[in-house]
Amino acid sequence: MAQAAREQAAADLLFGLLPPEQAAGFRAIWDEFEAAETPDARFAKACDRLQPILLNHAVGGGTWTDYDFDEGKERALTNRIALGSPALWAAAEAVFVDAVANGWLKPAPARLED
Known about the structure:
The protein is mainly α.
């Protein structure tokens, strides 16, 4: 089962535990977050994507070192942060630079010029 389907199933279960009016309100907020079509939702997504970056940095590499991750892969997975908040993306970029300098995140592979 894909991650999106697992999250959808978990949301159905959790929201199903709530009284109907409360469930509908929270479900609408969650659906807005998932769609990322509003400025608020894009900002929330940016915060959500920044959190693991900060955690990996705080623990000296975390899953970056566990899985031998490189800066290019991490940037590709998280560059949507910039859509929700250019300031948060700038903070993420500073974390990447520091993580590479500390050896927690491998440098991005050199790209061949055309």
